Amino acid sequence: MQDDFDYKGQTGFQSACTEYAQKNLSLDELFSLKAPNIYLWRATGGIGKKFHIREGDLVIVDRKLNKPQLGKLYVVIVGSEFHLGEYVQIQGIPFLAPQMINLQNQWDFQSLIWGGIVAIINVYTRPEVKA
Amino acid sequence: MIALVDVNSCYASVESVFRPEITNRPIVVLSNNDGAIIAANRIAKNLGFMSTMCEPYFKVADKLKQANAVVFSSNYVLIHDFSRRFHHTLFNLVPQLETYSVDEAFCDLSEMDKIYDLKLFGKILKDEVWTNACLPCGVGIAKTKVLAKVANKIAKKMDGVFVINEKNIKQVLSDFPLKDVWGLGSASVRKLNLLGIRTAWDFRKYENKDKIQKLLTKVGVKIWQELRGTPCIDFLDVEEKDMIGNSRSYGNDIYSKREIAESIAEFVTNASMTLRKQNSVCFGINVFIHTNSFKDSPQYYGSGFRKFLSGTSDQILLIREAHSIIDEIFKEGYGYKKGGILLSDIRPRNEAQIDLFSKQTDDNEKLNKVLDTINSRWGKNTIRSAACGLGIKEWSRRADFYSRDYTTNWNHLPLLRIS
């Protein structure tokens, strides 16, 4: 597909800045959306005030981010659902908030975690998508 | 050394990636049109009442319900995306990769045994596939492809990784039944049994090469040599297909000739596209249609064949020929359940001799090229022959248990709850 508009002036000469042409910025590239470990999710269920997440926002998830790191956000497996959770420590005890899943005796962090969150895109005007 | 990596119950495994609650339940996946069971997870297989795959679904539907099983239609869109993630992951880790099928890949590990502990490396492959693609897999490592297949079978029964080396090969092959050796059909096994060969080890030990050549032809000799540790199935030596088929069970029984003709045109369209992709031509086409053999209604099986004097890959010509076969074999009054076509006697385009006396030429070559370019850019079926019919088809596939296209459709993305 033709991504770039090929500029040629009316004179037939190329613009003086042609040789400075760079590739267009690409969100796909920035977030490695084509990598085998990257997945797109959709946020649902009201407003998560703390992280400014709203219904319908896009969430970029990396399966490789499966190690506990303080202050990071994770996709947490809760029964048949997936919930947003933050890895916190309260008085030295590790928790997933806001579900308050105590991780102290959890030898297997990875069995609770589906992946780590790379970015959240607040969608203000939802682009139309063909059904 | 060569590693064979393959996904455990791939079709069932992808369905549980975004459904954590079903991982401990039996999962089965149905074929096109929900006709037969084509895949099942370990738990479903252990139920024991599906003797083989391809069990008609309606026969076991009640039992599956009782066992609290989850049933899915084949979701090829989802499979394709996870297959991409699977192969891409391996591609990043090994020097050379041959994608053997949707859920299987051979990895060339030449020279790597000098640097790495192969068992450990196999474990890395397995863990990375799980991390990236959320799929469980087994890894078999050995000197040749046939041996890697053996190792892979054993790996599945153990912790998922198995390496065949000089030390364990005798034990491993002595316990390995001949019928499970890659490439040996039941007829070959019977012939070898007559020679007193029962296990893979017996076969490997057998010394009379000429006898093998005589009994099992060239293919048998290749398998025998591979079992002896001499690689002779080349890497990336992907055989060009010598037959290309396309067939399908219809969602409902079809009674009208027009609809049969439309479906056949679509099958020809798909198959001829594959033919042109590998830059080949075919010299023959088979068309068949038949009724539902599970139904207690009049049965009919019709098929016909056309041979071409010069090879062709021309979609329009092939559709015309297929339709002339339909004119001959279609009988009114039957409910047709399945139809299909087979392009045969396939040869590379540049080798195919041109018949000087034939009026038939491949003169639509340019048109076909344009068709393929447009369809590969804008999606399958952007432009197609009107012979495939317009509008909604009654025969198009049935998929009552279709899951979601979680990774390829903006409207089907998995949901993350915020509270």
Any chance you could write out the topology, listing elements then pairs?
The complex is a heterodimer of chains A (131) and B (419).
Chain A: H1 27-30, E1 38-44, E2 58-62, E3 73-78, E4 81-90, E5 93-97, E6 101-102, H2 109-112, E7 113-121
Antiparallel strand pairs in A: 1-2, 2-7, 3-4, 3-7, 4-5, 5-6
Chain B: E1 2-7, H1 10-15, E2 27-30, E3 37-40, H2 42-46, H3 57-66, E4 70-73, H4 76-91, E5 96-101, E6 104-108, H5 118-133, E7 137-142, H6 145-157, E8 161-163, H7 169-174, H8 186-194, H9 200-205, H10 209-227, E9 244-254, H11 257-277, E10 280-291, E11 301-312, H12 315-329, E12 336-348, H13 365-378, E13 415-417
Helix content of chain B: 25-40%
Please trace the helix and strand order of chain B, writing H or E for each element. EHEEHHEHEEHEHEHHHHEHEEHEHE
So what's the oligomer here?
heterodimer
Structural class of chain B: alpha+beta
Report, as a whole number of angstroms, the end-to-end distance of chain B: 51 Å
Strand content of chain B: 15-25%
Largest sheet report of chain A: 7 strands, antiparallel
Strand order of the largest sheet of chain A: 1-2-7-3-4-5-6
Q: What's the total number of strands of chain A?
A: 7
Shape of chain B: globular
Q: What is the general shape of chain A?
A: elongated
Rg of chain B, please? 24 Å
Strand composition percent of chain A: 25-35%
Mean pLDDT value of chain B: 85
State the largest interface: A-B, 35 and 25 residues
Order of strands, main sheet of chain B, comes to 5-6-1-7-8
Helix content percent band of chain A: under 10%
Structure summary, number of beta strands of chain B: 13
